[in-house]
């Protein structure tokens, strides 16, 4: 964790040092150059303007240091302050150039005022010297502070808006200011001597008289930049390119470094680091291939084991189903055998009962043989009665036929009477109509037709009476016709009944004949049955003995079946436990297979990532 209190002290101390040292350096330079004496130097440093300047610079330095520390702290708490912090840290060199300009104006004025020099040329020379000295001190101080602050902000992102001065530019500026300072020292001294001697010359004359220092300045700058480029810039660029190549996944060894200085040592250490990384990655790649092969082998083994487990599970399930079916069959067989045992017991009891029944049947058959002769006599009497019934039925059928013909004639006469009654009803209606017409005509005749009106009224009443009687007769005739029709139907029914009775009599006669024949046959069969019953009695005795043996064997079978049922239940329970265990094994195999597939995918991803690197 960053110690911000220590960081604050470092930042503020270096800023104050960079702000306060240029005035002292400028005064000391003027003293050692012979421009001022020791008392004048003390007078410059102790003047009120110098004190005010130092106080002002100290205040600015303190405020700037606290602002920088605050920005650096906030940059860790909020992302929007990060770019501002980087810009502030990278902007020290332009800041110190600005401060150098302030020192130039204020320091030069203090120096001129303290030394009491009025010459314009002398003031210009002093300002140039102050500028060189201030730049010489400010630039290294800014670079130093910039270098100190950067490690504290390595977590901050650098964007394109951040201002940063390359190392080559920093060193070039430092060397340039040193060279300019080296050139301006003798130039300033010469200008001072000329000013003391009262010699005045133009700018070109001034440069011409100082051509040798100017040439030395140009050559010094060229030589310094060449040395800087070959000794510092090229090794740094080479190391940067090597790092860029490594960033692009190329870890092959580079050529041995040309330089034997610190930068060459750094490049050599970097090559050793790349070799170590390459060796480690090569070993890791070999191990990765072995791991990939192991992962494939593990996947194949898991697939085979899973297939075997599935097959075993299917076999156990088949055994379980078979044992379930067998248990059901055993249960059914046990029930059947027990039922057989019960049936054997029942059979034994029935055989005992059968023996008794056979004995009783023998007695009954003997009695039946005696009864058959009695039934034969009764059958003969029934045959005679059947013949009498047939004769009586035939006579009744003839009488019914005559009755039917009589009923048909009555029905025909009833229809004739109905037609006559209808004619009477029609005549009564016409008579009533004529009576009404006569009454109308009598009414037209007045008193002369009154007697005729009475006759017409009587005729009308007679016609109405005739119509009413005709209706009564019609109703009676209809009722008689219905009765006759009913009688006809009943006669037909009676005729059919007599026909059926006659047919039944014939059938009864035939049946009686059959019964008589059957009785003769039954008499013979009963004798045979009696002999068979005696044989059945003997067989029943043998069956009784066999049933006892079957009962004993059925008991032993039931005991064996119960033992088999217990064994089947234990096997079913064991197969159930094995099935559950195989399910757990199958689930574990699935988990292992999923993990193996996941490992295989990760190994392939790592292998693809390793393939991106070029190793030595």
Automatic annotation (TrEMBL):
Residue span, T-SNARE coiled-coil homology domain: 299-361
Molecular-function GO terms, alphabetical: transmembrane signaling receptor activity
Pfam families tied to this protein: MCPsignal (PF00015)
One GO term describing the cellular component: plasma membrane
Coiled-coil annotated spans: 575-609
Keywords: Chemotaxis, Coiled coil, Membrane, Transducer, Transmembrane, Transmembrane helix
Protein family according to the UniProt entry: Belongs to the methyl-accepting chemotaxis (MCP) protein family.
Protein name: Methyl-accepting chemotaxis protein
């Amino acid at each position: 964790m960053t110690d911000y209190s220590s960081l604050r002290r470092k930042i503020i101390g270096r800023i104050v040092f960079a702000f306060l040292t240029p005035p002292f350096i400028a005064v000391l330079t003027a003293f050692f150059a012979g421009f001022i004496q020791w008392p004048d130097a003390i007078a410059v440093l102790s003047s009120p303007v110098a004190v005010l300047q130092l106080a002002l610079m100290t205040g600015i330095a303190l405020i700037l240091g606290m602002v920088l520390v605050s920005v650096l702290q906030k940059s860790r708490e909020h992302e929007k302050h990060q770019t501002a912090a980087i810009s502030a840290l990278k902007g020290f060199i332009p800041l110190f150039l600005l401060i150098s300009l302030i020192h130039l104006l204020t320091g030069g004025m203090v120096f001129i005022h303290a030394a009491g020099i009025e010459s314009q040329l002398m003031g210009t020379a002093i300002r140039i010297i102050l500028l060189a000295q201030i730049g010489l001190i400010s630039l290294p101080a800014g670079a130093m502070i910039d270098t100190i602050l950067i490690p504290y902000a390595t977590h901050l992102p650098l964007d394109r808006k951040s201002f940063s001065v390359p190392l080559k530019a920093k060193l070039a500026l430092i060397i340039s200011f040193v060279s300019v300072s080296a050139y301006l020292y003798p130039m300033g001294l010469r200008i001072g001597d000329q000013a003391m001697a009262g010699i005045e010359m133009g700018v070109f004359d001034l440069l011409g008289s100082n051509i040798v220092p100017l040439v030395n300045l140009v050559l010094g700058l060229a030589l310094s930049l060449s040395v800087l480029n070959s000794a510092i810039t090229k090794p740094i660029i080479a190391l940067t390119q090597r790092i860029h190549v490594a960033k692009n996944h190329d870890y092959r060894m580079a050529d041995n470094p040309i330089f034997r200085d610190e930068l060459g040592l750094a490049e050599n250490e970097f090559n050793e680091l790349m070799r170590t990384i390459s060796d480690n990655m090569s070993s890791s790649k070999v191990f990765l291939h072995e791991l990939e092969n192991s992962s494939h082998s593990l996947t194949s083994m898991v697939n085979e084991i899973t297939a075997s487990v599935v097959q075993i599970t299917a076999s156990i399930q088949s055994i379980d189903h078979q044992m379930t079916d067998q248990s059901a069959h055993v249960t059914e067989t046990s029930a059947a055998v027990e039922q057989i045992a019960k049936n054997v017991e029942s059979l034994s009891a029935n055989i005992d009962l059968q023996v008794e029944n056979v004995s009783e049947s023998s007695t009954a058959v003997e009695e039946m043989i005696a009864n058959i002769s009695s039934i034969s006599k009764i059958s003969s009497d029934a045959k005679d009665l059947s013949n009498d019934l047939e004769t009586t039925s035939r006579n009744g059928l003839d009488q019914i036929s005559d009755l039917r013909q009589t009923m048909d004639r009555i029905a025909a006469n009833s229809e004739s009477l109905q037609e006559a009654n209808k004619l009477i009803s029609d005549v009564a209606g016409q008579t009533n109509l004529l009576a009404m017409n006569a009454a109308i005509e009598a009414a037209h005749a007045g008193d002369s037709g009154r007697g005729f009106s009475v006759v017409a009224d009587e005729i009308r009443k007679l016609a109405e009476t005739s119509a009413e009687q005709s209706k009564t007769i019609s109703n009676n005739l209809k009722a008689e016709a219905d009765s006759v029709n009913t009688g006809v139907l009943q006669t037909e029914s009676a005729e059919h009944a007599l026909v059926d009775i006659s047919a039944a009599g014939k059938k009864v006669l035939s049946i009686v004949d059959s019964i008589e024949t059957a009785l003769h046959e039954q008499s013979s069969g009963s004798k045979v049955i009696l002999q068979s019953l005696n044989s059945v009695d003997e067989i029943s005795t043998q069956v009784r003995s066999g049933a006892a043996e079957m009962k004993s064997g059925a008991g032993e079978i039931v005991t064996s079946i119960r033992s088999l049922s217990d064994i089947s239940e234990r096997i079913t329970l064991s197969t159930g436990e094995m099935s559950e265990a195989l399910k757990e094994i199958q689930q574990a195999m699935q988990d292992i297979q999923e993990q193996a597939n996941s490992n295989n995918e990760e190994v392939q991803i790592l292998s693809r990532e390793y393939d991106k690197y070029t190793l030595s």
